[in-house]
Design a protein that fits this description.
The structure is a single chain. The chain has twelve helices and 14 strands. With 377 residues, it is α/β, with parallel strands linked by helices. The strands form four sheets. The chain has an eight-stranded parallel sheet with strand order 12-11-10-5-2-1-14-13. The protein has a two-stranded antiparallel sheet with strand order 3-4. Strands 6-7 form a two-stranded antiparallel ribbon. α4 runs parallel beside α6 and α10 runs parallel beside α12 (356-365). The longest helix has 25 residues, at 205-229. The mean pLDDT is 91.
Length: 377
């Protein structure tokens, strides 16, 4: 059977919380392969910190000696699994020590505070932990990381995540480029006054276009770097499930930038009924030429909606993917679904293990026969 069956992994959380051992990777690869999944998507850049040796960006102390990316890739390929680099782009603030907290001055942003997005919170303008994709120097930095990774590792699929704005940004770069593009002044009051039902902070048409174009330009550039540096590597993007919602909320118009990608990974979370998914999957499938592989979240309440942390919801979701003639799916994430959450042994669990019946049902009803690697290894 030809079907992508990928699962995300956040092993970086175990590293970050002091709960990581090299055998974590061995156990993960064995369990994933044994469950007839065929790809692991490893998060290799948690906000501001890299989990593989780099000569460019800040590396977690543990991974200066232990190459989490390289070890996982090697073991995946040895087990017949694809390796996908799950690479958050815009979220670049670092962590505070070994705590799961954002630091607006973390990572490379600590050296380059001008790279941060400037957003309004509680009616005050201040920096966030996101880098701004309008800033040429920041995009140069991300691009150099992408190139370095592609040079040094035989990655099967390079997945760009957080390729978006986190909010309306009013940094100097945005203000300059917005004015350059439209001859208008970028300010908070640039909203859609014509609709009395529109929330007061919804941006106007020109601002939406500016931000969506900025994100698309970044996707095009990074995708080009991946293809030049590693021609066999496929380029993917994690995206908000609903294109028009993403366009307004995070200025991520994946209908527009799909042409620059080989793969689209929309995350549907568990916000939709199965009947809604039955209608949505074909609409999204037919909207773009790039193949889409829906993502299903496997976290348990209260992280997800009540009533969906059940075997029935999980298996129904994946059956609808097949009914829509899509070519596969991805699951979020390994540590929760397989009952091995990071931080557990040190009492710092961030995401509790899922109901074990969910995995049992998926294995019995969906993963009951092997599938060869979809993109090849």
């Amino acid at each position: 059977m030809k079907e992508l069956r990928a699962i995300c992994s956040h092993q970086f959380e175990a590293v970050l919380l002091g709960d990581f051992k090299p055998e974590n990777v061995d156990i993960m690869v064995e369990e994933v392969a044994g469950a007839n999944l065929n790809a692991i998507q490893l998060c290799v850049k948690a906000p501001g910190i890299l989990y593989y040796p780099s000569e460019i960006g800040p590396v977690h102390d543990y991974c200066k000696e232990y190459d989490l990316l390289g070890e996982t890739l090697t073991k995946c390929h040895a087990a017949g699994l694809e390796f996908h680099s799950y690479f958050p782009v815009g979220m670049d603030g670092g962590w505070v020590g070994n705590e799961y907290k954002f630091d607006n001055m973390g990572g490379m942003i600590g050296k380059h505070p001008e790279w941060r997005t400037m957003i309004y919170k509680d009616e005050k303008l201040g920096p966030s932990h996101f880098g701004c994709l309008s800033n040429g120097e920041y995009v140069d930095y991300v691009d150099s990381l992408v190139a370095e990774q592609c040079r040094n590792y035989a990655i099967d699929v390079f997945s760009l995540d957080f390729i978006r704005f986190n909010a309306r940004c009013f940094c100097e770069s945005c203000k300059h480029k917005y004015h350059e593009m439209f001859g208008e002044i970028l300010q908070y009051e640039n909203v859609q006054y014509c609709d009395t039902y529109t929330q007061k902070d919804v941006p106007g048409e020109l601002e939406i276009e500016y931000r969506c174009r900025t994100v698309t330009d970044a996707v095009e550039r990074l995708a080009g770097t991946i293809r030049r540096t590693s021609p066999k590597t496929k380029v993917a993007g994690y995206v908000f499930a609903i294109p028009r919602t993403g366009l307004l909320r995070v200025f991520q118009d994946w209908y527009r930038f799909a042409e620059h990608l080989d793969v689209i990974f929309p995350m549907y979370y568990d916000s939709y009924s199965i009947n809604t998914l039955r209608s949505m999957f074909p609409i999204h499938r037919d909207a773009v030429d790039t193949p889409i592989f829906p993502g299903m979240i496997t976290l348990k309440a209260p992280s997800v909606n009540k009533g969906t942390d059940t075997p029935e919801y999980h298996t129904s979701f994946l059956r609808e993917v097949r009914e829509a003639n899509l070519s596969g799916f991805f699951l979020f994430n390994y540590e929760v679904l397989f009952g091995r959450p990071g931080g557990e042994s040190v009492g710092k669990t961030l995401r509790p293990a899922a109901n074990p019946e969910n995995l049992a049902a998926i294995r019995s009803e969906i993963l009951n026969e092997p599938a060869e690697p979809y993109f090849g290894i």
